[in-house]
Design goal:
Elements lengths: L25 H59 L14 E3 L2 E7 L9 E10 L5 E9 L11 E17 L5 E4 L12 E8 L7 E5 L12 H12 L5
Antiparallel strand pairs: 1-2, 2-3, 3-4, 4-5, 5-6, 5-7, 7-8
Length: about 240
C-alpha cells in the first residue's frame, strides 16, 4: 500500500514589527519640554552669573575709593579736634609754643582719654618711614606723666603717604592770613591757622587738604602748672623715634 503524502504547509510568516512612531506619546513630549525649560533656566543662571561678576569688577574700585575717602575723612576729623584743643596759654599767662616746620609740627594739647590717662600731652605730627619702605603719617604723643627717656610707639594715621606740606597762618590787620612755611620761634606762640596738605603715594587714595584752627580758648589750669611745664619741656626736646 503506497504511503500517503500529506501536503506541506508553509510556516506562518510573522510580519515585521511596526516602525517606531515619531509621536511616542505624552511622556516623551513632557521630557522634551522639561529639557527645554532646564536649558532656558541654565542660560538665565549663566547670564545672571556673568552680570554679577561684571558688577563686582565694576564695584570693587568704587568700594576701594569709598574706603579711602572714609579713612581720610576720619583722619581729618581727628586732626581738627586735636589741633582745636591745642593749649593756647600756659598757667603763667605766656603763650604756649607751637613749633612748626614745612613737614612736622609740635604743640601741647589735653591728653586723649582713649590713649592717655589724663593731663597734658606734647604732640608731634610728621611723616615717618615704615618697615616696608613706604611713608606713613604718624602722630607721637608724650604725656606729661611719661618719663623723658621713655618711648612710645607712634599712632599711624595714614599709610601710603608721598608728601606732607604744612603752612602756618598769622592774622594780618585786615583779618587775612599770612602764610609761613616755618613757625619755629617759640615767641610766636600759636598760629591762628595751620594748613595741612597730604599727598598719597599711589595716587588713588584720597589725600588731605584742610585748614585747622589751633588757637583754642583752652588754657591750662594753674593747678596743673607742673604738668604743663613738664609737657612743654618734652615738646621742646627733640622728638624721639
Amino acid at each position: 500500500m503506497p504511503a500517503l503524502r500529506l501536503p506541506m504547509r508553509d510556516a506562518p510568516q510573522r510580519s515585521p514589527p511596526p516602525a517606531p512612531s515619531m509621536d511616542a506619546g505624552p511622556e516623551a513630549g513632557m521630557t522634551l519640554v522639561e529639557l527645554l525649560v532646564a536649558m532656558a533656566l541654565l542660560s538665565l543662571i549663566a547670564l545672571f552669573a556673568l552680570q554679577g561678576i561684571g558688577s563686582l569688577r565694576w564695584a570693587a574700585p568704587i568700594a576701594g575709593r569709598l574706603d579711602a575717602a572714609e579713612e581720610a575723612s576720619l583722619v581729618a576729623a581727628h586732626l581738627r579736634r586735636t589741633f582745636g584743643e591745642a593749649v593756647a596759654l600756659l598757667p603763667d599767662g605766656t603763650p604756649a609754643a607751637l613749633i612748626g616746620t614745612p613737614d612736622s609740627v609740635r604743640f601741647l594739647a589735653p591728653a586723649d582719654p582713649l590713649l592717655e590717662s589724663g593731663g597734658i600731652a606734647a604732640i608731634t605730627l610728621s611723616v615717618e618711614p615704615a618697615a616696608d619702605d613706604t611713608l606713613v603719617l604718624a602722630e607721637r604723643r608724650k604725656p606729661s606723666r611719661l618719663q623723658q627717656d621713655e618711648k612710645r610707639d607712634a599712632n599711624i594715621l595714614l599709610r601710603g603717604v608721598k608728601a606732607l606740606r604744612l603752612a602756618y597762618g598769622a592774622t594780618n590787620e585786615d583779618g587775612s592770613p599770612e602764610w609761613r612755611a616755618d613757625w619755629s620761634d617759640p615767641a610766636l606762640g600759636t598760629p591762628a591757622l595751620v594748613r595741612i596738605e597730604l599727598e598719597r603715594a599711589d595716587g588713588k587714595g584720597r589725600g588731605l587738604d584742610l585748614i585747622v584752627h589751633p588757637m583754642s580758648a583752652f588754657q591750662a589750669p594753674a593747678a596743673g602748672s607742673d604738668t604743663v611745664n613738664s609737657a612743654a619741656q618734652k615738646m621742646a626736646s627733640p622728638a624721639r623715634t
